[in-house]
Each structure stands twice: as structure tokens, then as C-alpha cells.
Amino acid sequence: MEAQVEAFVAALSRVSRASKHTVENYRRDLLFLRRFLLDRRIALRGDGEEVDVGAISADNIRQYLFELMKTAKRATVQRRLSAIKAFFRFRETTAGQVSPAQSIRSPKSERRLPAVLDHDDVRRLIEFDSDRQDAGALRDRAIMETLYSTGLRVSELVGLNWRDVDSDLGMVMVRAGKGNKDRLVPIGEPALDALKAWRRAMPVAWELDGPVITNLRGARLTTRSVEKIVERRLVESGLTRSITPHGLRHTFATHLLGAGADLRSIQEMLGHASLATTQRYTHVSVNHLKEVYQRAHPRA
To answer: Which range, of 54-68, 196-210, 226-240, 263-277, averages the lowest pLDDT?
Structure first.
């Protein structure tokens, strides 16, 4: 089996032009399967010294994955099964062997709970440098206020133009967001005030069709630049919790839900195609629900 794994990764590198890192990952994952089969004396050649690839069955692979899931994360299991399936697809084309992994389904991904900040941490993250009034500080606070006020994806934030911000209505038009759909999202007064302060301080004259969030030379910021700004502000504000721009989106939804907003409205504001996606935020409101129950139920 080892020689056939090497032939596979060589072809992977040559034909698919996969990176060295990817090739090495495939090799390592397949050799883990080989070691498992050797240790348990499964699907061996007649001399018992090597695995006979042609003798590997679907049950053998399932047994390997079952043992792996006892100690490994699901993402690891998914990756190793992906390598196994790719290897046997290669065997189908080169040796005519029907893949024993073809019908094996990958385990579902673990649904990680979103990281969120509490109200005090959000206030600290936004306001810790409120004494600074230079353009960079005003822009960074506008970014933080807008992300938390609207729940926009970072890609949607950097895609905003000034025409999309309606101060009179207190709404932001998100154009062709995820799913290629426009949507209107409410924006609060503190965020609007922060955007106006940034607009007055912009080193380059703003235009209606120009970007809202720019660098100090007037060019639209990238999503990575916004991520770095959030990372820097976390450190400078002294917060020990880790949060990303997407984490502020989670925080937006969680705080709305905790204050009694209905899921359908939150779904609309977030731009989720499915309510099931929005429902993952309900886990963080369990404590709130318990408090309501304790206060309201006569036999709590």
C-alpha cells in the first residue's frame, strides 16, 4: 500500500498541481489508515507484511473511522475520509478497482457556538479611545459601531458606499450580499454619528458613490484590513476575549434576541436564507429565558 500511496501523491502533485503542504497531508492521512490496518492485521497480503489495497473493504474503512472518532475531532475524520476517497478514485482510474469508500458518508460538521461579547465589553471596545479625534481613530470607531449596530458581514461593510447609508430613515442598504440579494438593515444613532464624524474627518473628499470605509489615502479597505483593526483594538482596549468582525455579527444577533427580538426579524436583518441558520443564536439566551421563567412562573 505504501508504494501505491506514493504513486497517488506523486500524481496529485503533478496533475492537480497541489501544494507541497496538501500533498504531505494526503500522504500522512493515508499512511495513518495503513498503520491501522497493519496493527490490526486487516486486509494484508499473503506474507502479512503489507496491506493489500485490493482487499480493503468498506467495513474496514468504517472500522478505522469509528476508532478515529473516539479521539479525533470531526474535522480530522472528514479530512482523512476525503483523502481515502481521493486515493480510491485514483485507483479506479489506474487499476480499475471499485472504490470501497464510495458509499461512506462523511460525519456532519460540529456546530461550534458563536463567540460573543457582553454589553460592557462592546462598549469598552468601541469607546476606550474616545478622547482621540484623529481620522484613523474616528474611522476605526465608525467600523466598530457599524458592525455592532447592523450585524453586517465584514465583506458587506467594506462594500458600502455613502449612497447606501440613509441617515433620515436610519437604514443601510446592503447591496448583493451573500445569496446575491439586497436588503435593508436598521442602523442606530451612535453608529450614524460615528459615520458622520468619520466622513467629516476623511482626508480625501467623499462622494455619494464612493466607499464608506477607506484607508487614509481614500482607497476602499479590504476585509483583512478590517480584521486587523478589530484585532488591534482588542489588544489596545485590554479585552482578553477573542473576537472577530464576524463575532460582532454574532454579538449583534445575540443581544437582539436576548432583548426580546423575534427570530424572523433577526433573520431578515442578518440576511439568512434559512431560519435554521438564525436559530443557532438561541443557545446564548438560555440564561435570559431562565431569568424570565424565575420571575414570571408562580411555581418556578
So the answer is: 263-277
How far, in Å, CA of 33 to CA of 282, rounded? 39
Q: Give 112's Cβ-side CA count (13 Å radius).
A: 8
Asked whether the beta carbons of 271 and 174 are under 8 A apart, the reply is: yes
Calpha distance 92→87 (Å, rounded): 9
Q: Is the pLDDT of residue 281 over 80?
A: no
- Calpha distance 161→172 (Å, rounded): 10
First to last CA, the chain: 63
Helical H segments across the chain, by residue range: 2-15, 20-39, 58-68, 74-95, 119-127, 135-150, 154-158, 189-201, 223-237, 245-258, 263-270, 275-278, 286-296
**Which residue in the block uniquely carries the three cell numbers 476575549?**
241
Is pLDDT at 298 greater than 80 in this prediction? Answer: no
Cα gap 289→116, rounded to integer Å? 18
**Which one-letter amino acid corresponds to residue 178?**
K
CA atoms of 74 and 68, how far apart (whole Å) = 9
Torsion of CA 154, 160, 162, 167, to 10 degrees: -60
Active site residues: 153, 178, 246, 249, 272, 281
Q: Does the structural domain 119-295 have CATH classification 1.10.443.10?
A: yes
- Each domain of the chain, given as residue ranges in start order, spans 2-95, 119-295
Provide mean pLDDT across the span 119-141. Answer: 95
* Other CB atoms within 10 A of residue 148 CB: 23
Half-sphere exposure of 100 (CA within 13 A, CB side): 14
